[in-house]
Specification:
It contains two helices and 28 strands. The protein is mainly beta and 347 residues long.
Amino acid sequence: MKIIYNRIVIILIASLFAISCEDNDDLITISSTASTGNAILSTNSIVLDRNNVDEEVLAITFQEPDFGYNSGSIGYQLLFDLVDGDFGSPQIKAVGNNFSTTFTTSELNQILINLGANPGTATELSVKIETVLSVDTSWFSEASNLTVTPYASALDLSSRWGLVGSATINGWDGPDMPFYQSTDENDPEDTFVAYVNLTDGAIKIRADNDWAINYGDNEPDTTLESGGNDIIITAGTYKIVFNENSLNYSVEPYSWGLVGTATINGLDGPDMPLMYDPLFDNWKAEVTLVDGSMKIRFNNLWDINYGDVDNDGVLELGTLSNNIPVDAGNYLITFNPKTLAYSLKQN
């Protein structure tokens, strides 16, 4: 009996070894000389200037990794972290199948700020290349380092001006809905803008939450008068522009929102609204999305809509093929209508 038992054990071990050998035939063997093509930086030190936000200040290139076999990689990403970080929560820029990309002042500055760098302080930044070999397999390069001095991206666009009236959320008693310094390069410095959601009613523009200086419109036309008549408003979301010297003003429907199968209202809308953020002069929303895709569009209409063709964090004017894929989850979404840069950060 003992002899028979031993033979059975030997047969089982031999069978397992044979299966193991067959499985090993399917394993991919990476060459011992495999290289991931470390990031080559166009400069090692940059002081960012907020007056040149669109200037290209950094180029990153790398060679196609050599793994000793045809990897069939599906794309590359650049990962950024502070030198003393562990790349556990890096800032990521997808570069598709390209081997080079550039960064403007504003793009690089936002990466530093998101990583917690102090404005005005020279900060060591690390860059790695992630080569995506399959859906669940990636290969990472060694880090390349550079020193970057960011600027404070938060803006002080506050003003003394506000919107008051029965059409506003606080009525005639205030506090007023704020106007901010306009950042439109075509507007004079004495121009202010308010992005507001109003109900049916009336509004006036006043200074310092007080009636000592207030403006209405007697005609009505596009020019305000001191102490003038109430301005009648129908319910909606508006952009109101006001010049404190010429007293010219305008009221126009204005909203940015998320639409698509990933949103609660689908392709028909109404869109999930983005709200203006004066600290960064962009639009943002914290939203819960489902598996699907989305786009960003203007005024709940398809006339102006944006998607992302290259999956590179910069939007393009709408086509049928540039929906943004989204996995179910909670997100902080930011969008800049001027640069068309956007981000989806899962909470």
